[in-house]
Design goal:
single chain, 362 residues, alpha+beta, two-stranded antiparallel sheet, 13 helices, binds 2-acetamido-2-deoxy-beta-D-glucopyranose, Hypp5079 protein, transmembrane, membrane
């Protein structure tokens, strides 16, 4: 049972609160100097690497689709099948606000799958009430929803958390103020954004995405899809060593490390999303770099150019992209709070602990 006295976080889930106000000017300067050049360097790498990848891309299978869902924040949406069949699970999304170019909207989707000794099998997938059988379209739809709705939710508390750190001069968490606000500013307001604004987008070689920016903002205002996901029994559906189980244990680890270092417990969920959830979600996505699908869920075929587009987007935007001289991973920060957190996370999963960054960096 969820307690009715649950404390509300003082932070507002607003990704568009990313203006360069005087108190955060130094963070913008740091971002433009240290983090944003990485995108130009990485772009060249993304183009070359994607050309090479074109020879190896393959169509997604059932286990790719389910594996993707189980190893990213999409896992929070997994439920046991409503009719209680053992080994059958469902992922249901309703009232989605996301829109794609060409006048398409993703209103709802539902996936049912079976996981057992003989591997996984997708039983049914519907999108806007219509059955979709093509695995590339399925993967593309799940990917579209995940990166623009679920993953975006891990960014939502970052702006107000950073403003809190700066305004109150919380020295212990200084590294957690880097890059997030300017990154959101570029994503939402600059012509270099990878997202479409009113259907307009700057097109560069293999760059850009199919989702409309306003629809991401609209979708981000509705957090109710996540309501109840904090309740423990939701996590218990997953094993201790699944992605979701590890996330839950990391949250507990963060909580106890915060206690030891006298950090206001009100910051817990915002800090959890901002550091751990965001970076391990990116890490989870990048395990699926070899699949051939279009970024636009309604594309009828995936041309070579479209497969190239998808690959550039994945290498440039969804794979972790850090400045090696200033990576801001918690393992690289020589301060007691981050080192302590790193040690605790290593006990849960050493590989995961290595990718966690102190703030939303990419
Ligand atoms: C798939 O789900 C839809 C809607 O939930 C239902 O109408 C359809 O019969 C299902 N198809 C199969 C093969 O189970
Ligand atoms: C999903 O969306 C379609 C298209 O808007 C609608 O007809 C259908 O009723 C919706 N299904 C659910 C379960 O919300
Ligand atoms: C982010 O934080 C909110 C509020 O604490 C929480 O409900 C949500 O599950 C978190 N988001 C993700 C993607 O973990
Ligand atoms: C998008 O393009 C249309 C027509 O080209 C233009 O009128 C509109 O102002 C543009 N919108 C933005 C946000 O740039
Ligand atoms: C990707 O490739 C298509 C051609 O298939 C091209 O028209 C488009 O501009 C590229 N970018 C996006 C976001 O689709
Ligand atoms: C928010 O999303 C939930 C389901 O995820 C839906 O039931 C509700 O109607 C939505 N609210 C608004 C205001 O769109
Ligand atoms: C994804 O998660 C499942 C279950 O949590 C696990 O068995 C599987 O190995 C993972 N797949 C990858 C590619 O990491
Ligand atoms: C499935 O869709 C992809 C494009 O999304 C297309 O290239 C492929 O040919 C389709 N496969 C089948 C079996 O229809």
């Amino acid at each position: 049972m969820r307690s009715t006295t649950k404390k509300h976080s003082p932070f507002r889930p607003r990704i568009d609160d990313c203006e360069c106000t005087p108190s955060v000017q130094h963070i913008f300067r740091r971002h433009y100097l240290i983090q944003s050049p990485m995108y130009y360097i990485r772009w060249i790498y993304a183009v070359l690497y994607s050309l090479y990848l074109l020879f190896f891309l393959r169509a997604p299978t059932d286990s790719d689709i389910v594996g993707y869902i189980e190893n990213t924040t999409m896992a929070m949406l997994i439920r046991r099948a409503a009719d209680g069949k053992t080994g059958e699970y469902e992922v249901t999304v309703s009232d989605c606000k996301l829109r794609a170019s060409g006048g398409y909207s993703l209103k709802n989707m539902s996936l049912r799958y079976k996981a057992g000794r003989n591997g996984v099998q997708i039983l049914n997938f519907t999108r806007n009430g219509v059955e979709v059988g093509n695995r590339s379209e399925m993967f593309s739809t799940v990917y579209f929803y995940h990166i623009h709705s679920m993953h975006t939710k891990s960014h939502l508390f970052s702006n107000s958390l950073v403003r809190h750190i700066v305004d109150n001069d919380v020295k212990t968490l200084q590294e957690s103020s880097y890059t997030s606000i300017p990154l959101h500013y570029v994503l939402l307001h600059s012509s270099l954004s990878v997202l479409m604004w009113d259907g307009n987008m700057s097109r560069y070689l293999g760059y850009g995405n199919a989702c409309i920016r306003e629809s991401i903002l609209e979708e981000s205002r509705n957090m109710s899809a996540l309501e109840g996901h904090r309740a423990e029994h939701r996590w218990n559906l997953h094993g201790k060593n699944t992605f979701a189980g590890k996330l839950f244990r990391s949250r507990q680890a963060l909580q106890s490390v915060m206690e030891r270092h006298d950090i206001d417990p009100k910051l817990l969920d915002a800090l959890f999303n901002h550091t751990i959830v965001h970076s391990v979600d990116h890490h989870g996505i990048s395990e699926w770099s070899f699949l051939r699908f279009s970024l636009h869920p309604w594309d009828k075929d995936c041309s070579l150019y479209q497969a190239f587009n998808t690959s550039v987007f994945r290498v440039l935007i969804t794979q972790p992209n850090l400045n090696p001289l200033a990576p801001n991973t918690i393992s690289s920060i020589n301060k007691p709070f981050y080192q302590d957190l790193y040690r605790e996370l290593r006990k849960i999963d050493p590989k995961m602990a290595d990718v966690v960054t102190a703030s939303v960096m990419y």
